[in-house]
């Protein structure tokens, strides 16, 4: 208590000065309408500035929730696009049928929003870790994309996180095609730059131009067809080979990965079983010996 009294005594002149200034302003404004108007206007501006500052701070902290909501909406739109693409393919196949019917059952592709918690782009074999795991329905061999294009494929899963083989990993090969044609090949990272890869094994008669879009072919059980992957930069072919190779600029910026979507193909088990049956049939001797 004695310290408080000593503090007030040391600064008593300032307290008296502040009190006298407040009394003077009150007496000056009370009987002068013009000065009252100026005071109220200045106070209103000050309060408005304070409210704007507080709103900016609140909006900043709400960005996380807004971003989460946008990612959920984006995932829903991706699922709708995948289903519409599937429907178009079915209609195209049945275009000459008299009884065109498109069955509407369980959606083939489901999308789960996740966040990247670690990522590498400069190593020979790059991996990504996301904050969703088996507790969230994530399992190995699920595709991963972001808002721009393909990111990778899930390799290992824990209860609350998962490891993803990045597209910037030579162990990951992605079936892709030129959007304007049906010619397809395998996209693989050659380790040179984190923004480029090579589309290999294209037929020699493939017609292409710089600027053509590369998309997923849909010939695997992991990714739906038509997901953007990159843009053709140039021919990267050794002309002694029998196939084209195109250098591709990747649409996904792996140096700024934040939010991603994990794709689940609800028909993947059925497709794997069919492929396994085809492989077994191919190993059998067709002559029965």
List its salient traits.
disordered C terminus, alpha+beta, Thrombin, subunit H, six-stranded antiparallel β-barrel, 289 residues, 4 helices, six-stranded antiparallel beta barrel
**CATH class descriptor of the domain at 112-261:** Mainly Beta
- Major β-sheet profile: 6 strands, antiparallel, barrel
Q: Could you give the distance between the termini? A: 107 Å
Strand order of the largest sheet: 1-2-5-4-3-12
CATH superfamily label of the domain at 112-261: Rod shape-determining protein MreC, domain 1
Shape estimate = elongated
The parts where pLDDT drops under 50 for at least 5 residues are: 96-104, 285-289
Named at the architecture level, the CATH assignment of the domain at 112-261 is: Beta Barrel
Helix content: 25-40%
**Strand portion, in percent?**
25-35%
The tally of strands reads: 12
**Average pLDDT taken over every residue:** 77
CATH topology label of the domain at 112-261: Thrombin, subunit H
Give the SSE order as H and E letters.
HHHEEEEEEEEEEEEH
Total DSSP helices: 4
Explain what the structure shows:
The protein is α+β, with helices and mostly antiparallel strands and 289 residues long. It has a domain at 112-261: Rod shape-determining protein MreC, domain 1 (Thrombin, subunit H, Beta Barrel). It is 36% helix and 26% strand. It contains four helices and twelve strands. The chain has helices spanning 2-10, 12-30, 33-93, 268-283; strands at residues 109-119, 127-130, 143-145, 150-157, 162-166, 174-178, 184-188, 196-203, 213-216, 228-235, 243-250, 259-265. The strands form two sheets. Strands 1-2-5-4-3-12 form a six-stranded antiparallel beta barrel. A hairpin with a 4-residue loop joins strand 3 and strand 4 (150-157). The chain is elongated and about 95 Å long. The relative contact order is 0.12.
């Amino acid at each position: 208590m004695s310290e408080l009294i000593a503090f007030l005594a040391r600064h008593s002149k300032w307290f008296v000065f502040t009190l006298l200034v407040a009394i003077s302003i009150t007496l000056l404004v009370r009987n002068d309408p013009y000065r009252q108007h100026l005071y109220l206007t200045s106070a209103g501006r000050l309060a408005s500035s304070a409210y704007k500052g507080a709103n900016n701070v609140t909006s900043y902290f709400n960005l996380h929730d807004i971003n989460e909501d946008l990612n959920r909406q984006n995932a829903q739109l991706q699922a709708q696009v995948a289903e519409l693409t599937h429907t178009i393919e079915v209609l195209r196949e049945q275009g000459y049928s008299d009884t065109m019917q498109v069955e509407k059952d369980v959606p083939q592709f489901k999308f789960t929003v996740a966040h990247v918690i670690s990522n590498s782009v400069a190593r020979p074999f790059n991996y990504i870790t996301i904050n969703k795991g088996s507790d969230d329905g994530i399992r190995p061999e699920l595709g991963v994309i972001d808002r721009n294009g393909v990111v990778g494929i899930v390799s290992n899963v824990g209860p609350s996180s998962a490891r993803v083989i990045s597209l910037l990993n030579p162990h990951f090969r992605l079936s892709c095609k030129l959007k304007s044609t049906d010619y397809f090949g395998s996209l693989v990272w050659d380790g040179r730059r984190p923004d480029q890869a090579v589309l290999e094994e294209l037929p020699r008669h493939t017609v292409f131009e710089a600027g053509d879009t590369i998309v997923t072919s849909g010939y695997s059980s992991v990714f739906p067809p038509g997901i953007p992957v990159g843009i053709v930069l140039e021919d990267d072919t050794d002309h002694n080979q029998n196939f084209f190779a195109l250098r591709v600029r990747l649409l996904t910026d792996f140096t700024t990965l934040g939010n991603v979507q994990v794709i689940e193909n609800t028909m993947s088990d059925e497709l794997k079983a069919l492929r396994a049956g085809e492989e077994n049939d191919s190993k059998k001797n067709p002559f029965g010996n």
